[in-house]
Specification:
The complex is a heterodimer. Chain A is α+β, with helices and mostly antiparallel strands. Chain A has five domains: 2-120, HPT domain (Four Helix Bundle (Hemerythrin (Met), subunit A), Up-down Bundle); 140-238, Alpha-Beta Plaits (2-Layer Sandwich); 250-312; 315-412 and 451-496, Histidine kinase-like ATPase, C-terminal domain (Heat Shock Protein 90), CATH 3.30.565; 501-628, OB fold (Dihydrolipoamide Acetyltransferase, E2P). In chain A, strand 8 (388-397) and strand 9 (400-407) form a beta hairpin. The two termini of chain A are 48 Å apart. The model of chain A is unreliable at 122-133, 231-243 and 451-462 (pLDDT under 50). In chain B, the strands form two sheets. In chain B, strands 1-2-4-6 form a four-stranded mixed sheet. In chain B, a hairpin with a 2-residue loop joins strand 1 and strand 2 (9-12). By secondary structure, chain B is of the alpha/beta class. The chains are: A alpha+beta, B alpha/beta. Chains A and B meet through helix 6 and strand 2 of A and helix 1, helix 2 and helix 3 of B.
């Protein structure tokens, strides 16, 4: 059943994708086929799990789609009805996941939806046409091709009727393969009769079925057609041999990733060992050999780490696929009309990212619908299409993935945000007035600010955009917003594609060691005595033309309170754009480490970015300086 | 004349029609020529194609028509390879 839920969702998503493509272009044969295949496979699976209502609904949808495919006039409503049906199936999957069964009203909903689909087609669809099973064996030469397979066996006396089978075939559009053979084997004992047709013509056309059939209309009784399914797609539908993928339990994958991380760390110890061996009397050669081996192990471990990282990359498509329906549902509940355009579903990112992005993205989409999108009447007055449009797009930029949610709604009014921030006590009047519009709009990410004048049921759950920002930060990325009044809002996530090694500076405070992310560190310095001036509870010192605040790192993490040393070592780091100096006892090392997020009880420990395992097996805490000084 | 005997080569030229199938068959069966050149051929009637398939002469020359060049000629050549050598 768990497998069915996963695969069923994928099939629903595929059907929905096909339908959206069909809504744009009715004659998109590939989309039609994809959709058909998905529905058919899904219908087949429902039989295994006693999901009668779902099967009924899918059966009706398949009928309707078959009629559409076979060229029956389509009415504007039928694609909509099919989309609604697929949405319903998706909702049932929600229920199956949650309760393990379909809701009680599934039977009647199934029947009603089935009726709607039949009605949308005008005349009821009579005898259901099963997806054409070819009545002949499609030649193996045609494997991997897609389109319509044609088998044309001209009548033996066709030449007398003026038919030229080759000319007829040559006139078919977009023929991609041709195969000729004899209907009955040539018999060399009999005189060859050039005027009795003994040809079998097999061909593949990438054109639409209607076009191909039209080309053969005068010899229709001598031709058979079959839809070819490209092997790669057949695999996803029927588990054919072409597909070389494997579903693996995510926990095992995580374990593998952890082991690869540990290996990177364990091999770090070898370098030191090699150095020790070299310094032994007579140990030079041994040390050199060890160093060579270590270099090789280095490369292998690095490779393994990178490969495991790639294994964890999964496409965004399954995540994205759920949003169009959710957007339709939310829009409907708000009495608005909106459509979601999804792009970049093939972008691959770390699995953890996909899992963690679902809620933040949904929240941004909700906000766009709830606060960004105007009522239909307002939109009409503004000269916009009644239905709002939201674009969810992903692309890769270097080692980052950029995910954008852009709506064409009212945009964010900087003045309103300023006023609201003051009213909610987020800022003082003076601070608010000092902010430029970009910074003011950025306030939507500030805790305690809800931008809708009326808190609605949807967005007003006490979850603000501040949660979205901290989610992005915890994924090692950031989120920004831009907005043009009247033209819409764009929220942009920039996130790392894969878990990567981060560089840290290891510092000592007394006995304790801590890691500081190197990207925050601006420089390290030693302060001569007398340069430090006490200021209220803290210290400050002058560095070049700037006065920097100085805080004791040991004090911040709560281990001890120390006086400043004679020659005080400080780490100068940028914290929220401002340089701050942290007093430490020693600089120990610079390392590349695989960061492990804090989990369990420590998950919400403030000031901790995560941990890493050191070569000697000890655990090093990586500090989040911004949180520490907050 | 679209079927022309040129020394040891049978040349199919221009558009080859139904009636050419008969002369092609006769020439292949009686002249002892077993090489057919299609380079000047513009179209081939089904009966001519069938004669080439059935009698199995060697086929050479690249016709200009995309259908002949990209689809029909490869289909004829595949057929020849598939034929047992004693035919």
């Amino acid at each position: 059943m768990a497998q069915f839920l996963v695969e069923g969702r994928e099939l629903v998503a595929e059907a929905a994708r096909g339908l959206s493509a069909l809504a744009l272009r009715r004659d998109d044969a590939a989309a039609m086929e994809a959709c058909f295949r998905a529905l058919h496979t899904l219908k087949g699976s429902t039989g295994l799990f006693d999901l009668e209502a779902m099967g009924q609904l899918l059966h009706a949808a398949e009928d309707r789609l078959a009629a559409l495919r076979d060229g029956q006039a389509s009415t504007p409503g039928d694609i909509d009805a099919l989309i609604e049906m697929v949405d319903q199936v998706d909702r049932w999957f929600d229920a199956l996941e949650r309760d393990g069964r379909l809701p009680a009203d599934a039977g009647s909903i199934g029947q009603a939806a089935a009726h709607r689909i039949r009605d949308a087609g005008g005349a009821p669809v009579m005898a259901e046409e099963q997806p054409a099973q070819p009545s002949w064996r499609i030649p193996p030469d045609f494997d991997g091709l897609s389109g319509i397979a044609i088998r044309y066996v001209p009548r033996p006396d066709c030449y007398y009727f003026g038919d030229d089978p080759i000319a007829i075939t040559a006139a078919i559009p977009q023929v991609t393969a041709l195969r000729l053979s004899a209907r009955v084997p040539w018999d060399s004992s009999e005189p060859y009769d050039p005027f009795t047709c003994n040809l079998v013509i097999e061909a593949v056309s990438a054109a639409g079925r209607a076009e191909v059939e039209a080309g053969f209309r005068l010899v229709a009784d001598q031709v058979a057609f079959a839809e070819l399914v490209p092997a790669a797609q057949a695999g996803s539908a029927g588990g054919g041999p072409a597909r070389r993928t494997l579903r693996v339990d995510a926990a095992r994958l995580d374990r593998l990733a952890d082991l690869a991380d540990d290996l990177v760390i364990a091999k770090g110890g070898l370098a030191e060992l090699a150095a020790q061996a070299e310094s032994l009397p007579g140990g030079h050669a041994l040390g050199q050999a060890l160093r060579l081996r270590q270099a090789r192990l280095d490369r292998l471990a690095g490779d393994l780490h990178a490969t495991v990282g790639r294994v964890r990359l999964v496409p965004l498509a399954p995540l994205f696929a759920r949003f169009p329906r959710l957007v339709r549902d939310i829009a409907r509940s708000l009495g608005k009309k909106a459509e979601l355009v999804v792009e970049g579903g093939d972008v691959e990112v770390d699995k953890a990212l996909v899992d963690a992005l679902s809620d933040p993205l949904l929240h941004v989409l909700r906000n766009a619908l709830d606060h960004g999108m105007e009522e239909a009447s307002t939109r009409r007055r503004a000269g916009k299409a009644e239905a709002g449009s939201i674009r969810l797009a992903a692309r890769v930029e270097g080692d980052q993935v950029v995910i954008e949610v852009a709506d064409d709604g009212a945009g964010i009014d900087a003045a309103t945000i300023r006023a609201l921030a003051v009213k909610r006590g987020v800022l003082t009047q003076e601070d608010a007035a000092r902010l430029d519009d970009v910074a003011a709009i950025d306030l939507i990410f500030a805790p305690g600010l809800s931008t809708a004048a009326a808190v609605t049921t949807l967005s007003g759950r006490g979850v603000g955009m501040d949660v979205v920002r901290s989610a992005a930060a915890s994924l090692g990325g950031r989120v920004t917003v831009t907005s043009a009044a009247g033209r819409g809002t764009q929220v942009q996530f920039r996130l790392p594609v894969a878990m990567t090694l981060i560089q840290i500076l290891v510092v000592a405070c007394g006995e304790e060691r801590y890691g500081l992310p190197l990207d925050a560190v601006v420089e390290t310095a030693r302060l001569a005595p007398g340069r430090v001036v006490p200021i209220r509870a803290g210290w400050a010192f002058q560095l070049r033309d700037q006065v920097l605040p100085l805080v004791g790192l040991g004090e911040l993490v709560g281990t001890r309170r120390a006086a400043l040393a004679e020659s005080q070592r400080v780490v100068i780091a940028k914290v929220r754009g401002e340089p701050i100096a942290f007093a430490v006892d020693a600089f120990v090392d610079r390392l590349d480490i695989a960061l492990r997020p804090m989990n369990g009880l420590l998950a919400h420990a403030p000031g901790m970015l995560g941990t890493t395992l050191l070569a000697d097996g000890s655990v090093l805490m990586i500090l989040d300086l911004a949180e520490l000084v907050a | 004349m679209t079927v022309r005997l040129d020394g040891a080569v049978l040349r199919l030229e221009g558009s080859c029609h139904l009636e050419d199938a008969e002369s092609l068959t006769a020439l292949l069966q009686t002249s002892g020529v077993s090489l057919v050149d299609l380079s000047a051929c513009q179209s081939l009637h089904g009966a001519v194609v069938q004669a080439l398939l059935a009698l199995g002469p060697r086929v050479e020359g690249i016709p200009a028509s995309p259908f002949l060049r990209d689809l029909l000629l490869p289909a004829l050549l595949v057929k020849r390879q598939a034929k047992p050598s004693n035919l």
